[in-house]
C-alpha cells in the first residue's frame, strides 16, 4: 500500500477581494522531500505556504497533510512549523530558552524540554550556544536558532518562508549547503519559498515555478533549468535566449519558439559570422557577450574565463550551438497549470 504524500493540494484557490492570489493549484509533495516554491513577488507562492500552515483559509480546494484533510483546521492543529525571514526570536530569552519556548507552551516537563532543546541545537550545529542571547549571534547563527526552535516540536513538515533573504551573499550561500545537510539528517519534509533561482536549484529535490497564482512547471532542478516548459520559466529560472517567429526560423530552420541557455552558446571569430558583439561584460569567473544577430534579435553568451579574450566589442562573430541544447517551448503554457 502506497503511503500518502506529506502534502497534497487539490484545486487550491485563494482570493483577496477581486484579486485571485492562488488560482487553482494541484500539487503533491513526498514525505522527506526538500521542495521549493519559486516565483517572483506576487506569484502566489507565499500565499500557498500560508494556506498549508493554516495562517490563511482557502477560497476553494483542499489541503491534506499525511492524508488528513486539514483545510479548515487552525495552525496549532496541523503538524507543521514555520520559519520566517525575520526569525522572530525573543531578544530577552537565551538561545536555549527560545528553542524551549514552544515545548513550554505545550507544558512539556522541564527536564524533557531541556533535553529536546539541546538535541535540536546540536542538530543545527549550535552545541554550547544555549546561554547566549540572540543579539550576540551572527545572522547565520540566529537563522539556525530559528530552525532549531521549529525542529524541536518534531513536525512532519517544516515550512520556510524566504529564511535566507536577510543574509549577505556569502553567508546565504553557506547556509544553503547547511540547510540541505540538516534536512537530510533530520529526514522531514522541507517546503522552501524563495524568489532566488540559485537557492531553489541548489537545495531542492524538486521545484515548483509559480506565475500569476498558478504552477507553470514542476520538476527536478535539472528538468526545470534544462527543459523549461514555457517562455516565462526559461526567462525566470536563470537566463535564456528565447527566439520566436522569423528569427527562430532563420536560426534553426524551424518555426516556433526556442530557448538556448547563454552558457550553451559558443562564440568564435572563425567561419561565417552571424552577428556583432555589442557589449562585453567581465564578471570575474565568466564574461558575458551581448551579440546583435543578423537575424534581427539580440543574444547573450556566457563564457568561462579560462582564456581571457580582449577586443571583441564591435567585432563580427559566429554563434553556434549543439542541436540538443535548442529547446522548443510549447506555446500557451505561461499561464496554464503545468503541475
TrEMBL record:
Keywords from the UniProt entry: ATP-binding, Nucleotide-binding, Transport
Any GO CC annotation of this UniProt entry: ATP-binding cassette (ABC) transporter complex
Gene3D superfamilies: P-loop containing nucleotide triphosphate hydrolases
Pfam (any one): TOBE_2
SUPFAM superfamilies hit by this protein: MOP-like (SSF50331), P-loop containing nucleoside triphosphate hydrolases (SSF52540)
Occurrences of domain ABC transporter (ranges): 7-237
MF GO annotations: ATP binding; ATP hydrolysis activity; transmembrane transporter activity
InterPro entries (UniProt xref): AAA+_ATPase, ABC_SmlMolc_Importer, ABC_transporter-like_ATP-bd, ABC_transporter-like_CS, Mo/tungstate-bd_C_term_dom, P-loop_NTPase, Transp-assoc_OB_typ2
Full protein name: Putative spermidine/putrescine transport system ATP-binding protein
